[in-house]
Amino acid sequence: MMENKFMIRTRNGKYIVRLVCIVLIVFGGSVRGRKLLSQTRPDPSSAAPFARWLVSESSWGILSTIADDLGGAPFGNVVSLSDGKPNEGKGIPYFYLTTLDPTSRYALKDHRSSLTISEYALGTCGKIDPENPTCAKITLNGKLSELDEKSEEAATARTALFAKHPEMPTWPKDHGFQVFKLDIEDIFMINYYGGPKPLTVEQYLHSEKDQLTSY
Amino acid sequence: MMENKFMIRTRNGKYIVRLVCIVLIVFGGSVRGRKLLSQTRPDPSSAAPFARWLVSESSWGILSTIADDLGGAPFGNVVSLSDGKPNEGKGIPYFYLTTLDPTSRYALKDHRSSLTISEYALGTCGKIDPENPTCAKITLNGKLSELDEKSEEAATARTALFAKHPEMPTWPKDHGFQVFKLDIEDIFMINYYGGPKPLTVEQYLHSEKDQLTSY
Q: d(Cα B141, Cα B114) in Å, to the nearest integer?
């Protein structure tokens, strides 16, 4: 057999193939700090399951609130999120916020808010442009409020957030992080050509939740 | 030398090391459709260069506007962006928007807007949580408006957008895409511990622009 400079001479080629495969798998899963997705991307025509998938798989998004100290301008901020404990997500986004950051301060004065998530951040859009309608995006509009920290919902949300964001329990106690919740009132989602998908909050919240909200 | 099951027996180990390196580089650059960054991450203490780097390297962000049909609630939307032609970026974000999408319709009624970008999307935060202050985030607040399509600035912005987003020129002509610009009035950036970095618009716009705005 002819050899060229790209061939590797070894007594046991299988080891090399295995090593490269392991490198690809490990590197592919951990590259840039991202994990592999836990659920298959639903068909874009299934609006509710698709929306639940996008929210469930996403670890972060942008929370927009009204900035009273900027003349009532809209103010977007990067936040981590969780929609429930592993395999028990309900589609309702929870956040762990401190009033050292403006978003929670704004929300406490004016609850109106939106959470925006791009599928591009998941890495499933390939080479498609982030603004291309087939690279999905969702905006959940509603009211952002702090949960009573002694409530059962806050305890569940904390468990969900800490499971998805293992760093959170180590964040400084004196920063006063609290659990916030977005009560969804309106959904805007584009995940294919043809404009926003018709999708009610009711349809979203009750969509195949047992199958599509694990992470 | 002792051997164990993790060692590879080969007549020329250097080739394997090279192969693995090539695999890492190629796979790391192309995984999930992202490109390698063109500029080195500036030191977080250099607020202005850091902010310019983050905006310049980012291909997308969230534009928040006021939704008049949602009672004046803030509405975040995923958009592609460019801050200038390759190696000639000026730090001013331009967008290619259609009024088929609500964001530009909202902006035409109320110019107040913010653009929010997360470093997490660049892949340079590693395993750090997206909400960790060392994983940078920036919010540029200002006025979002449509450029006169026959102006020189619109022509330059279109060239910049099309260079960064090669898909854009192929988007449907009948969708009426137009160039929009965010006139920055206020900057909020966290890129390390210790709260938002003091950074004026003036400092941002005149920061080492020749070195840090290529992509």
A: 4
Contacting residues of A for B9, CB less than 8 Å apart:
10-12, 15
pLDDT band at A39 (very low <50, low <70, confident <90, very high): confident
Segment (H or E) for A75:
strand A73-80
Counting DSSP H helices and E strands in chain A, the numbers are 6, 6
Q: Answer yes or no: is A61 within a domain.
A: yes
Say whether residue A5 is in contact with chain B using an 8 A CB cutoff. no
B23 near A CB under 8 A: yes
Domain with B60 in it: what CATH number? 2.30.110.10
Query: What is the spatial distance between Cα B125 and Cα B119, in angstroms, rounded to a whole number?
Result: 7
Domain assignment present for residue B75? The answer is: yes
Domain that holds residue B80: 42-212
In-domain check, residue A14: no
Using a CB-CB cut-off of 8 Å, the residues of chain B touching A12 are: 8-9
Residue A24: list chain B partners with CB under 8 A. 23, 27
The structure tokens listed for B128 are: 């750090």
For the stretch A155-178, pLDDT in tens is: 999 999 999 999 999 999 999 999
ipTM over 0.95? The verdict is: no
Domain count across chain A: 1
Is there a contact between A120 and B186 if contact means CB atoms under 8 Å apart? no
Beta bridge partners of B46: none
Any domain includes A25: no
Q: Is A26 on the interface with B (CB under 8 A)?
A: no
